[in-house]
Amino acid sequence: MTRVLTRPLLEIKNLDVDYGLGDEAVKAVRDVSLTIHRGEVVGLAGESGSGKSTLAYGVTRLLPPPGVVSNGSVVYHPPTGDPYDVLNLSHHELRKYRWAETSIVFQGAMNSLNPVHKVSVQLMDAIKAHEPTSSKASRLARAKELLRLVGIAEDRLEAYPHQLSGGMRQRVMIGMALALEPQLVIMDEPTTALDVVMQRQILGQLVELRERLGFSVLFITHDLSLLVEFSDRIAIMYGGRIVEEAPSAAIYRDPKHPYSEGLLRSFPALRGARRELTGIPGSPPDLRGMPTGCSFHPRCPKAFEPCSTDLPILGKPDDHVGEPRTVACWLHPVTAG
Amino acid sequence: MKFLLQRFAFYLFTLWAAITLNFFIPRVMPGDPVSSLISKNQGRLTSDAIHSLEVLFGLDKKQSLWDQYIGYWQQLFKGDLGMSFTFFPTPVSEVISQSLPWTVGLVGITTILSFLIGTALGVGAGWKRGSWIDSLLPATTFLSSVPYFWLGLVAIALLAGPGSWFPSSGGFTPGLVPAWDHYFIGSAINHSLLPAATILISSMSGWMLGMRNMMVTVASEDYITVAHAKGLSDKRVAFSYAARNALLPNVSGFALSLGFIVGGTLLVEIVFSYPGVGYQLFQGVQAYDYPLMQGIFLVITISVLVANLLADVAYLLLDPRTRKSG
Ligand SMILES: Nc1ncnc2c1ncn2[C@@H]1O[C@H](COP(=O)(O)OP(=O)(O)OP(=O)(O)O)[C@@H](O)[C@H]1O
Ligand code: SF4
Ligand SMILES: [Mg+2]
Question: Which of A16, A96, A217, B161 has the fewest Cβ atoms within 10 Å of its own Cβ atom?
Fold first, then answer.
């Protein structure tokens, strides 16, 4: 499953995202650096409230108010031409960048379709916005092709969203995300509302499409077991920070961070959107009053002396040899620089 | 379709109930106001006119109630609503058909304008919160909370009166003969400006506020974020996604307000002595003109029901979710 991936597609560097300004601000994402390579499926996992969606919104500049990116950069490497920082794009450039380069399937995929327009209209307006000179016939043909791609009958083009099942709506959204053959597709828990069988089926299709079309995927979920199966690399988020990042197999075999270990040991419920994490005692941290040092220390079974006072930095552990991986934990000290 | 037919049947039933109520009210009223009016007008009424009033108000006590009821419907279908006492000897149907165009013209047009302008401003205010349009809101809200009666009187005191270009009362310059020429139409427009402006001012902000709040609500919907993420133009997101959905609750409100054009104009027409249905109703009430009142209530009932039907049709056209039974 793992492959040699060298050319970066999107480099998130030291990203901070706050909700609100000043002292009242909720620091939802802190110092996140993550690189997605071409053709790679990167998984992002973490408990509810750990900042996964906020990171996705921040990267695509879709943060709802009062969210603001307060620091960092998001460097995009287009197939041809020089890399640029998405956060610096003008309004006009941003509009051209969106969907054509990076598309996103939202957590609320159930409500992602406009209830008053037909599926065909919503597939075609995205194409029209980016290819204003395309003919209506060609857009319609493309819309049909997209539905076929995600396994929905062509005649559903004429349907309104309320006439589709939840699973069909999510497939439509996935098809829509591929409309302009973007380089990167961000999927924020696109399958949480579905049962496990359906989730696997959709994900399987997605990975297959990825092989054919060659896009990269940032896949966000609570469910680490899904990620282990479908992604190349996995990043684990806790309290707004990435605490571990490694190839899927490596995380599965040998999780270094006690939180990753807990996530792997916790059993997701068979059905339903919200999952109890049974493997980790205690509850996620309050972003307004983060614990000092390692923010996981109040819940960590292995916490020891430096944990409550000093913040462990994310980096390659000194004791590690082999595939590149990083972790932020005092059990695996990192020599800075 | 099935849905519409059901609604239509329901409104027909309501109409029947309203008319039947109209039939019974004068029959259970204490005293006999109409017959005393008839006797007061003794000699001025033809026997036909007396007969039609007897049918309408059940003065013929020898008939059974059922026969009265049948006769009442027959007369309604002929369009005979009796004789107006205030505008004696004009039949009620003629009185109403003279005043209805004034009301529909003034209040109808202003209701539509008020909805269009208010909605457009609401879209702007809700989409760009904190913009200049948004800052209009406190002012318009204040104006709409002023009682209409007072607003009209202030407008007359300040803007109309001797030497002013705005006439303070009436629908046209006295002495002009109603006709489709530019004297008359010009005079009619001139007379309608002040009442129209006061109606607009007092009713527009309701639409604006409603639309603004719906825009704000809709703006946080997932499909709006998706529309932005797709890189659609701001204009398309604002209109085809946000406004299109925000409009839905307002449209049925608008259709219903069309139903109150006839019934809700009393104040405007009294303040401006405007020759419409409301002013006539006012005069009719003062003169105990029961036939006229009954006739106007009938027109109001019908227009409210038609407006309800319009609201249903509009909703059906605009919201695909209501079309399920297709
Ligand atoms: N609009 C907002 N205003 C203030 N705080 C917010 C806002 N949206 C999210 N947050 C906070 O930011 C933190 C991260 O939220 P986010 O939605 O990114 O979490 P998540 O990891 O996606 O969780 P989930 O798995 O439940 O989707 C949470 O603590 C949340 O309370
Ligand atoms: S740093 Fe300490 S508290 Fe944090 S995860 Fe590692 S051992 Fe646990
Ligand atoms: Mg989320």
Answer: B161
Find the A287 Cα to ligand 1 centroid distance in Å: 10
CB pair distance less than 8 Å for B245 and A104: no
Q: Complex ipTM, two decimals?
A: 0.90
Residues of chain A scoring pLDDT < 50: 1-2, 269-276
- Beta pairing class for A26-37 and A8-19: antiparallel
Instruction: For chain B, give percent helix, strand, coil, nearest 5.
Output: 75, 0, 25
Q: Report the b/e string of B274-305 with b at 16+ CB within 10 A.
A: bbbbbbbbebbeebebbbbbbbbbbbbbbbbb
A117 touches chain B (CB under 8 A): yes
Confidence of residue B325 (pLDDT cuts 50, 70, 90): very low
Question: Residues A130, A72: one domain?
Answer: no
- A268 plus A161 within the same structural domain: no
**CA–CA distance from A322 to each of A9, A34, A247, A257, A316 (Å)?**
23, 19, 11, 17, 10
Q: Give yes or no for a contact between B207 and B122, defined as CB atoms under 8 angstroms apart.
A: yes
pLDDT at A2: 47
B274 in the Ramachandran plot: left (φ > 0), alpha (ψ -120 to 50) or beta? beta
CATH number for the domain that contains residue A44: 3.40.50.300
Answer yes or no: is the C-beta of A300 below 6 A from any ligand 2 atom: yes
Across the range B304-312, mean pLDDT stands at: 89
Does residue B238 sit in helix, strand or coil? helix
Matching residue, tokens 């992002």:
A44
